[in-house]
User: Fold SEC14-like protein from Capsaspora owczarzaki.
Amino acid sequence: MCASRLNLHFCCSSQMVQQYQSPIKVYRKPFELVMAAYERRFPTSPLIPVFLGSEVMSEYKSEDGAIHMIERRCKLDIEAPALLKKVIGVDYAYFIQKNTLNRRDRTLVIEARNETFANKVTILETCRYRVHPDNAEWTAFDQEASLKIKSFLGMENAIEKLAMKNYLKNVDKGMEIIQHYLAELERDGITSIAPWKGPEPSTTEAASAADVVATQPKLEAEFIKRYLGDLTSKEESDLLMLRQQMAETCGKRGQRLPTESVLLRFLRAREFSVEKAHEMLTRSLYWRQAVGADHILEMYKQPDVLRDYLPCGWHHFDKDGRPVFVFRVGQLDVKGVMKSVSEEDLIKQLIFINETGMKLASEATERTGRPIHDFTCIVDFEGLGLKHLWRPGVSIIQKIIQQDTANYPETMARLVVIRAPTLFPVAWSIVRNVFDERTRNKIVILGDNFLEQLADILPSESIPEFLGGSCPTSFAAGGPVPEALYEGGAASADNDNESIISADHTAMYQEMAIGRGSTFRLPIQVKDADTVITWDFFVHSGADVGFGVFFTKDSIDTEAHADKLEELEKSVKYKGSVQGTMVCQRAGQYVLRWDNTYSWVTPKTLSYHVDVISSEIYRRSLSSLLSVSTSTSAETVTSTSAVH
Assistant:
């Protein structure tokens, strides 16, 4: 009998049929030798202590000896706490097991059903041994079962949990037991047994034999381990059931069946609920058909703006062999890109990135000899400012992330955040809810010694130049998109001044002329420590201007008492676009000062916007971020057990 059946009689959900299906297990021994090992399990075996014995109820042997059918009533010890045994009123369970051995076709089919509690629980299990289709000297084995609890004294949930625990513990024992007896046969000097030979079967007998061994295509356990990794018995079963359901769905719609790696990713995204994974994957297949995802690698032509100004791309492999995707988000001109390409262009770019990543992962699997089905994403936030929180851009980015989560789940092994500025917690609080919890838990934030920590993730020769390494990148560096390229973009020109955190969306930027030899001071009253001041300004006409931040405890006339100001951020000359953030350590008056006193000839013009984020909002955003990842240790960076 199958070892898993020892506890199978409890493995089911109340009022629901639960199914189990195993992958194909392979014994690298001939069928006849495996059958000899199987017979050594009877009448009892010390390797199966819960199998207490059996009695033969009926037996049939064909005249030529090719067919041997035997039906047994098997007695099993119930693996359950004594109190539960007392409540249900039994110490043992009985199963009816029918074995059909066909020596001509070299198959053994084992069918079992429960006798004990048959009015409360229905269990059917089938196990099959047969010659491996690709190697006549090997034997293949698979099993499947269906279970249903009708009612069980109100203890359905407790019975189910106990049964599932014991069942999954024992489901792999059958192969171990056969291997044990194969080794015993070898010690006894039995290393080969000749296949049965006899006359050809009658038409009726041959048809009957074909009926009992007919099986659907399955996956081999070795294939699963090689290309998908280590899975529990339940996960293997869920994968096979989802594969079967999707084969039916795709067959009806004329679509290609997704690969096992894709099936596994959707199962993980839905915590191995076959029903939910099937629903999610079916919706995704509709989406893929609508957007042409299956042909994107051959058909996609990247818009020039994305090629020249989108600062992201694939960059070699990490130390675990995964493809690495790098995104310099701080160098992205959100408004410029959104005004230059359509939303459809951005969605296609997302698809192209993901499909390329999956292709790279598949190639890495073949190259490394181990399963790789996800990638590492490194995001550099240096340069993040208010310009990145432009409302139309954030809205489109949120939509893109939603599309990614729904159609490419579990493709990211970890998201490594580098050079996160003070404004980062606020930006994170805006987009965090778009990510599911599993993705949020994969975020790792590196500290000031990020280069040292990055060396634990990437080979030293692959660390990008812009992060302090020696490896050049092959994608665009980003930067401002020329306004001459603004045409037919995803974002409307009517939304130019909308900030995601500004209280006044109608006039986000103000213009200020600073005369020659003059300064412009902007006082800001701060009531609480941990208040955040953010600024974004642009100096026109290629000119430069000095900028610094000052503080005074009391509210004063900053023009009349400039000498009483404490300098917090030294004045430095800037050109072009400048963003900055400061977390206020004290309550008081802060002063932003733009300085043109060094220029006695040229006046300067700048556009500026300043936001003040309350300490409450900042602390809440920071708390949300810290709940995702507070570790910056190398141990956290190099650990992959939480992301597989």
Residues 260 and 520 are 63 Å apart (CA to CA). Confidence is low (pLDDT under 50) at residues 3-14, 203-216, 500-507, 630-644. The longest helix spans residues 343-368.
